[in-house]
Amino acid sequence: MSLASWRLKLRRLPGAIARVAGFGALFATALVSGACAGGSEKEVLSVAAASNLRFALEDVSRAFESRHPGAAVQFVFGSTGQLAQQITNGAPYDVFVAADLDVIQNLAAQGAIISDSARVFAHSPMALVINAAAGLPVTRLEDLKQAPPARLVIANPDHAPSGIAARQVLQQLGLWEQMQGRLVFAESAQQVTQIVRLGDAPAGFTTASLVIAERDLRVVRVPGALHEPIAQAVGITARTPRRALAERFVSFLLSEDGWAILQRYALEKP
Q1: For the domain that residue 47 is a member of, what is the CATH number?
Q2: Where are the beta strands (DSSP E) in 114-245?
Q3: Are residues 11 and 119 in the same domain?
Q4: Kind of pairing, strands 126-131 and 71-78?
Q5: Which CA distances in Å does 18 have to 21, 26, 161, 219?
Q6: Ramachandran angles phi, psi of 70, nearest 5°
């Protein structure tokens, strides 16, 4: 099945368009970058990527394409768990960039990822984002104990590593039980930011890489000691017909030039 056919299939399936009950907002999970006139003139690399790296990877792809004018990179962004399921089901991606090394390794054990291509290339810090118009008197994490928001949005821990990290942060703060009934679960870290920006929840936990240059929201960085590291990992799919191009892209991502871009988005070396 072609990538275009998969995009059509995704639009028809639950979860392909992320939904949050009660908010009435729809967020597309697929984003294409690296478009080029004529299409067939360039070799197109399809990359499934965790949504928390959207902005960083878009910059990486632009730099990669400038060095490889015969290549174009197309992204499909989503939660790590959902993208992994798509790969298991045969989605024709060439590269998988995940927010969990275990997911990459599990796919490698299934034969879906080339084992020796799996690498951890960065750790993602977490951040608390607050809608300034909500009037929430929180300037540091400890303030949540005295002023817990009526709604707090986190990515769904069932399939999003940033959601697992958010749960760990709340547990470390002694707030996990207190926040039951107030939690709103988003499909991805990126959707957390969108929900808070729209004002559908006053605050939420997302990854710092998505809000490093945020001007419309207040951002409180989360100490890494409060959660297990979010290990950003990459692997090349076993079914790719573009292995050479995939290897060049991964090599650039792991290079010093790639790291110079990634660190601008608050990513940390593993």
Answers
A1: 3.40.190.10
A2: 119-124, 126-131, 152-155, 183-186, 203-207, 217-221, 230-236
A3: yes
A4: unpaired
A5: 10, 6, 17, 24
A6: -90, 5
Residues 98, 85 share a domain? yes
The whole domain housing 111 covers 3-123+231-265
| pTM for this prediction | 0.83
Cβ atoms of 240 and 246 closer than 8 Å: yes
Contacts of residue 240, defined as CB under 8 A and 6 or more positions apart, other chains included, come to 93, 94, 95, 246
What are 43-72's pLDDT values in tens digits? 999 999 999 999 999 999 999 999 999 999
> 119 and 236 in one domain?
yes
> Is residue 270, in this structure, part of any structural domain at all?
no
Q: pLDDT tens digit string along 4-25?
A: 544 444 444 333 323 333 322 2
**Locate tokens 């300037």: which residue?**
139
Residue with tokens 């958010």: 166
Structure tokens given for 188: 């991805």
Residue 241 lies in a domain: yes
186 within a domain of the structure (yes/no): yes
